[in-house]
Structures are given as structure tokens and as C-alpha cells.
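Supplementary material to the annual report.
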Amino acid sequence: MSAVDEMGLGEVGVVASEALREILARAVGGSPVASYVNERPLSWDSVRQGDWDMLGAAEEDGGAGASLRDLVELARVWGSAVVPSPLVPTLMAKRWSPAARACAGPVTVSVPTRASGGRAVTPFGVEPDVRVLLDTEGDGVVAKFVVVGADPYAPSLRLAEGGQATTWSGVAAAELRVVWAAEATGCASRMLGDAVAYVKERQQFGQPIGRFQAIKHHLANAHLLAEQAETAVILASLEPERAPAASRFAFDASLRVIEIAVQVHGGLGFTWEMGLHMYLRHVSALRELAAGLPA
Amino acid sequence: MVAATTVEGAARSRFRRDAEAWLAENVSEYWRQHRGALEEAEETRIRAEWDRKLYQGGYAGLSLPVEYGGQGLGLAEEVAFGELAARAQAPDGLGRIGKILTAPTLIAHGTEYQKSTYLQPILSGEHVWCQGFSEPGSGSDLASVACSARRVDGGFLVRGTKTWTSFSRHSHRCLLLARSDESAPRYRNLSLLLLDMHASGVEISPIQQISGSRHFSETHFDDVFVAEEDLVGEEGEGWKMAMTVLANERGAVEGITRYVEIRADMDLLLECCSQPGEAMEQLESLNIRVEIVRTQVSKAVSRQDDEVAFLRSAMVLKVMWSELWQELTSLAAKLSCPVHRAHWRHQYLESRSATIYSGTSEIQRNIIAERVLGLPK
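Predicted assembly:
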């Protein structure tokens, strides 16, 4: 298990991300995002049963004590499937706050973003029974979330707009920015894999389009960006002073990878049904949220 | 397992501490102060002396096996030493080609005679080697080399021209790729020879680059004799061996060395741009990309036991650092302050070559697409 030693990755990170990969494979397999993005392929009960929401909490608080580096690995796996479930905000809220840990159901956070004109944006805010963490510091305050308006842009994030925003500690904001960026890099790696598979199959001019140098260079660029995006979030988890810039880089690079994936899918790339836009929506919405977190 | 990792970690940090102390003691203040402004003869003397110091200090051939005079350590130590040496502004020895290219090739494919004759002087710094692969007519299409090795009694006669040869004026031997069989099919018609650069018929003409510097030469061979015992491996197998050699050339050690140099340029740019204004965002992005290069090298090293994972993370390094350095020097030339104008003008021109030598960015992208992503040829 030399991977345990990989760039500070702990045993929790290795074991949990492997298990999560299997759970996601069972829940959605390789089916296209568009087919499940409005459903609930992963129930909250199954998340609870596996104690997934407690992974990031310290061991003395009843959690698994995952480090930020471990959470980066986990978020990358999570990002590969774009399953609509409030797991990431919940496990982060329970990492920081006793009040969040006292909740059995999902807990989310709320961020005023520039793009929403300073109104609070709440991922999974339109989900029933969701609570929102209003203060990441001290004992924390958790409230029932009252939906003001729904933003349908990214179905996988079930965004709500309006309502009360979370008060952020520096550490909580910094950690969530890194984890959201890691989720974006997971989306990018998945899209790159799908694009590579597609260009090996798709025939034009009597041969797979992946044989054309124009396509090869697009995907080589996508690989360069996906590799660097992964490296950036690892760096962000290990060196806090570089985390904001590294996270910003990771978001931009990941989005570019997905754009390239859309391009090489040709006409299919811009059909609703194929669903590649769900990744563009998911990652660009996460980028807006991350940009709204206090520096 | 955890205990073994900790022992390994402790040995590595001891290695770093020792190397750092050794470098502090051995890189002369004179070199640090005057490097870049020395007469060629003096620079050459200091660089040759550096090779001998490395050997005496036990830092030559870190990852080569002990039985061949190496240190028997691994890639992690090579990378660590590369980083520390660059930080200490140590000279670049003249022995690089011998250590990185010739020695691993001979260890893998050489005869007992070749190993016992050539390895020791390479490590000790006594013999400088150059690489005779590229030709005026064979750049990216390396398999098309036309320089010929014609069979004669007791060996070969080499005729042709090699180009972009580094260190050729100081070299004792050349690791040469030549066409030994006109009738054999492509990839099966080349042989790898160990050519004596002091033999009669060798002529060297320096090439001046766009920045004004002269790092390379064109080398002409007019029926230069190479003895039979200086043929490496089988006749006609040169291409396969050359490919292994080139895989050694591109990699983690170069990546970390370049990181340190680019880091220094980045620090200078951040310091000299006192009014960055609209360039702020570009500077932030370049700055984090420099650190991503460093982390990318560590990531590649940490995955070295898994061939696929290693390739995935290591194959991007050349494009990453070379294109980053170009973007950095382009921005610096645009924002240039009067104090550092000469430096940025030079770096701007000098960095143009980085995306061309050692495999152009275009060839690198083909390799990434075909070997890493598995797209059809």
C-alpha cells in the first residue's frame, strides 16, 4: 500500500475514497448524469448508515478524523459522479460544528455570492428537511432552512437563493473552498475519461476521430490541465497559504477540461440529453459559491 | 508498513540535511557572485571541477547501482539533490549527458568491456560525453537519421552531421545514433555507437542562438572510425535503445531543476513589478503554476512504483515548465522595469527554445495523447 504514503494521504483517505467509489458505482454506475440528476439515486439513509457524514469530524467528536488531504481525495471521487446529495456540505459542517453533528439529517451552508448580487446562495436549500449551519464557529447554530427562491441552473446542486447566510471562520471558509475545488477536479477527470472513450469510438472520415492530431492535442491539453488541477488541490490541502490561489486555478482548469470534453463530443456535446452540460453547470456553480466564501 | 515508511522518511531527511550542508561548503562564493559573467575558459574550468567535487563528495550517479560506482539511491534522492543544488546555485557540471544518458544505457545494454572502460571516468568527471541524435534533417522525426555508419574491417566509418550537440567542444566521447543498414526497414536500421570525439575527421562548429548565447554545436563526421567493441547492443537495435535513453532525459530531475530557476525568475518579476495593476491576476496565476510544477514533480516521484500512474503525472512536466517559463518571460518583457530590462530581454529570447528542444511541445502532446491517453496512432 504505497498509496498510503502518497503526498500526505492518510489511511482514512485511501479506504474511504475506495469505498465511496464502490457506492457510487452501485448507485449510478456509468449511466449518464442527465438520467439521474433530478432523482435521488443515493438516499440520505444510506449516507447515514455508512457514517459518511461524520468522516471529516475529529475522532474525539465521534468522527473518522479525515485530514483535509483525505477529504480532497474523497471529494475528487464524489465529483466524478455528480450525484445530487448534500454529502459534501454536511460532512464539512459536521467537521466544524457540534450543532451540526447533533443533526441526523443533512446540513448545508449558505454563501452570499457576487453573481447573485450578494444574496445568500444555498446548495441543496430546496431539499426537504435540510438544515443550514448559520455559524461555523463555537457551538454553531443550525436552523431549518426556509426556501425563498429556487435557482434551477445546476440541478445537481439544488440551489436556493435568499435566506440567511452562514457566518464563516477563516479556517472553515478556506477548507470548504479547497474541498469544492477538489470536487471540481473530480468532475474534470471523469469528463476527460469519457471524452477519451468517445473519440476512440466515434468514426468520421472512415476512422476514429481520436486519430486526428487536432483531437489529440485538445485532449493532451485537457490531460495537462486535469493533472495540474489535481496537483493544485493536493497543494492547497498541504500548504494553507497557497490554498486560495491553488483552488482558483483548479476551478478554472477543471472548467476548461470540461469545455474541451464538450467540444470533442461534437453535436452530442451540446444536447441536453447527453448531459455534459450538467458538469459545466455543476462546476461553474461551485466556482461561484467558492468565490463567495470570505478570503 | 508504517514503520518502514518512517525509517525511509528519516533516511531521506538525513540525506537532504547532509546534501544541503555539503553544497553550502562546496559551491564557491566566487561562482555565486560571478556566474553568468565569466570568461568561457574559466566557466568551463569551474564546471569541470564541479564534476570532480560531486564524485569526491559521493553525489555522482545517485541513482546508479553501487556495483558500477553509483550511490544506489533512488529517484527521490536525485530530485532532492537537484532541487538543493539549484537552490544553492551550484554549477551545472559538464558530465550531465554521460551520467543521465550514457551510463544508464551502458548499464542496461553495454558489454563488460564498455562498462569497465567508460562508467568510472563518467562518474569521476574525467570524461565528458555529448549526445549525437538530432540532425539538420532529423528533428522531431528522429528515426529518419541519415548519418551513416559503414562497416569496415574492425568497426565502422561514420559520415554525416549531428546538430544541437551540447558540450561537444569539451567532449571525449559521443553517444551516437547512426544508420548502419541502408536496406533494413525503419526503426531497425540504426545502431548506437560510442564515438571518440578526438578521432580524426571530427569537426565542430558552434551555433549561436537567438538570445546570443552558444549552448550548442553542429558536429561533422568525415569518415570517423569507431571500433567494433564500441557498438552498443546489437547492430540495428539503436532506435529501441535511444528511446529508453530519451525516456531518461525527460523527467522529474529536470522538472525540479527548472522549477528552481523559474521560481527565481518569478520572485524577480514579483519584486520588480511594483505597480502590477492589471497584471495582478496574471501574476497570481503564474505564481501558483510555478508551485504546481514543484508539487507535480513530488506527485510523480510518489507514484514511481506504479508505471501507469507515474507516466500520467511525469509526462506533463516538460510542457508544463517550458510553456510556463515562456508565459512568464513574455509578461516580464511587457511589464519590464528599467532596472531588469537586460535580464528580461535575454530571458524572453532564451525561453523561446524551451518548447522546442528535448521534444517539442507538439511532439510531447502527441506522446501524451498516444501513450498516456491511449488514442490510436
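Chain A is about 50% helix and 10% strand.
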